[in-house]
Amino acid sequence: MTEVITSYNPSESQVLRISKSSFGTYNKCPRLYYWNYIVKLSPPPNDAMVRGSMIHQVLENSLLSEADMTVADVALKMGETDLGIDALDELMIEIYDKYPDWELVEAEYKHEIPDTVEYEDEDGNTHSYDVLLVGKIDGVFKDKEGRLIIVELKTGELGSSKVSRTRKELNFYRYMLDKAGYNVEDCRYMVIAPDATNTDVALKLQSSKGKEVLWGTTSGVAYVEKYNKRSYNLGTLKIGKTAHFINLEEWPMIWSEYYCPEWCEYHLGCEQEMLV
């Protein structure tokens, strides 16, 4: 299989790009990173991905609307109808009512931030790598105390694993904003999940200390939480480690009997390799 020289598989003259998605993919399974970013076999978008992109676009257009258009107004103008849009419209109205002092800082702004990350190997040797942190955040607000609220929109059901994964993604965005010069001290994370119907997960979030949960009328939840310093520090340490092993071109598989056959497009190749 031919490898493709890209900024996610850089030559000596290139700088490694690290995005929320590429970082998460490598730490979930380096072999999946290899297929998606090195060989570039990413499957075409499925219906759920197309729908997710559409709902993200509706939210972006609403946030950036100079006429203060609601999500419903934007969807109508775009000619889009979806139950997720209806739930998102309800949640955004609740958010604006509950947090009237929040001011929008940015929405879907394309960041490309140079950074130098380090990794200490088992022998105590420190390796440094120049990288480019890239990404577009769904939204960033600022409250009257000057604290940032980093927003992530998630379509699909909200399970406990998605809550954990989304927190890691928001940690990456906090790190990226910190390197961009933002004051991220004491920032908050907001997750908006218009498709969520899992009340057990939502109730668990609501009973957790330091979290505020908003409920949609028919479906959907949104929640705000403080960033966890320990979780954040552990997660950002992995950025240097990830850069190190990508530069070493190490792509081991992390096999899951549940996840891989059910969700990974490339599981047949891994299964065959394990039989050899």
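Above is the first protein from milestone M3; the second protein from the same milestone is given next.
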Amino acid sequence: MGRVRDEDLCLSFDCGSGQIGLFEPDRVPQHMAESSSKASAAPETGTYAIVEASGQQFWLQANRYYDLDRLNAEVDSTVTLDNVLLVKDSKGTTLGKPYVKDASVELKVMAHRRGPKVIVYKMRPKKKTRRKNGHRQELTRVMVQSISVSGKAIN
């Protein structure tokens, strides 16, 4: 076994080099110093809303498309979701209890489609019992037109 140099000794639990221990505060390894500066400079996400639709919660941003469970709406029609749990804009964050009052998200239905195929294979060992099923989820692709609070679009 070779001799361990002080430069190789990373004294945190896992610093990526495979060595384990505690680091000295004035001697932080170079690769750890770079990663900490990247984490502090996180990009701003802008305006978004967290909405409840079809039993799930979705993080929606304006002018982006999302796949939701099948909605009863025609293609190119507009759907409004009123179950808005949270809205973030330039003024701040508004959290609903449980929903934000007078907030809505307007969606345009782009297409009705099907999700990827999922194979369900069930087998009981030593019983010669096998069952193979496939499933494709029915989805609706929607484009977020606007996020509005109290009748004013915030995007």
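Note on the second protein: The chain has two domains: 1-42, 48-153.
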